[in-house]
Amino acid sequence: MPSATTPSGAPLLAHHGALGDTILLTAMLQALAARWGAPCDLVAGTSAAPRLLAGLDFVGEVRVLGGRKRPYATSPRQWELVRWLRGRAPSPCYLVERWRHPVAPWSSLTRLEWLLRRAGVPPEHVVTTLERTRAPLEHAVDYQLALAALDPPAFAGGAAAPLPEPPPRPLLRASPAEVEECRAWLGGLGWRGEPLVLLQTEARRASKRGRWPRERWLAVIAGVLAELPEARVLVMGTAEERRRTGELVAAAADPRVGNAAGELPLRRLLALLALAHSCISLDTGPGQAAAAVGCPLVILAGTADPRRNRPLGPPGRVQVVTAYAERPWPESGVVWFAEHRLEEIEVGPVLAAWRLLEACQS
Asked: What is the mean pLDDT of residues 36-63?
């Protein structure tokens, strides 16, 4: 029998978030694996999580929760998740939930808490966001690492190590084989090893977060190619975004500019980011991925306050551009959301931030 303070299983982290949220969560996954001495299992909200986290030695099994609002009675995926949870050895469990939506009007438990209870996981094995309130302008990674430093009551005073130093940052990797496959794909597009500057011009939540005008993207493309004439510019995106990215590429009217939208399954995207000279992106999942693989990145902030969720990468490799220019940022994220507009960002600061990335590489 294991002692009362020593877990016999791998740590577990559960989180219901989109692609960008899951990328930020990799810092906490590293911290929990280091603290408890085993790769951390994950219950994720996005179906892309198993592919996204492939090849990371600090990640154990990855299970997908699926639709958070779907009733348990009609969700085979939740049934399977509960069976899997029941079969796990006793271990520290961490639930990171941005909002505490009760699973039912008569319950105080969230969906994830309810599923753990149904699987027989004792509450004293679990750390939740009730243990510590997130400060208004606290970055998600800092908050999650603070949660990772806590011990569930059943394992308090056990053999857990302290948080690693320096604190981990979000991390993704492409394998050598994936990088070679990406090189071959690029070769089919005529690439011969020129510097690749990637643009992410579309965002899934554009209707809420706004769009950056096409004319400004064209000016950025012109500025990049004037500064780095030997470069190739590739515009990224999904298959659904290919029409809009194609229109941008056609308007650029330069053979050095290509449209990669719809041709970037997730693992190829990571390999492409690993090969790239730099990336200029809206605040969206591919921007988070760029920072996590170490690609030098300029991010155009939208309505979401970057102090809370900006991409984090190696020192000097992420530049955030806002519409505030030289003005001080508001002291409240609520004010930021109400008044900051992506459409008000000018071209000059974006190119200036990109040149800073260039200086970091020289």
From this structure: 95
- 111, 99 Cβ separation under 8 angstroms: no
Q: What is the pTM of this model?
A: 0.93
The pLDDT-based confidence of 2 (bands split at 50, 70, 90) is: very low
Q: DSSP letters of 283-311?
A: SSHHHHHHHHHT--EEEE--SS-HHHH--
CB atoms under 10 Å from CB of 33, counted, come to 24
Note the Cα 335 to chain centre separation in Å. 24
Give 240-243's long-range contacts (Cβ < 8 A, gap of 24+). 241/202
The helix (run of H) or strand (run of E) holding residue 181 is helix 176-188
Alpha-carbon gap, residue 297 to 220, rounded angstroms: 14
Among candidate residues 54, 81, 56, 84, the one with its CA nearest the CA of residue 67: 81
Q: Residue 162: name the closest of 31, 40, 59, 60 by CA.
A: 31
Q: What does DSSP assign to residue 44? A: E
CA atoms of 209 and 273, how far apart (whole Å): 24
| CA torsion through residues 26, 146, 90, 77, sign | negative
Task: End-to-end CA distance of the chain: give it in Å, rounded.
Answer: 57
Position 66 scores a pLDDT of 73
Q: Determine what percent of the chain falls in helix, strand and coil, rounding each to the nearest 5.
A: 45, 15, 45
For the chain, which domains are there?
12-155 (3.40.50.2000), 176-361 (3.40.50.2000)
Alpha-carbon span 117 to 331, nearest angstrom: 39
In whole angstroms, give the CA distance from residue 40 to residue 8.
13
The crossing angle, in degrees rounded to 10, of helices 347-361 and 214-227 is 30
Six-digit token string for 201: 């011009």
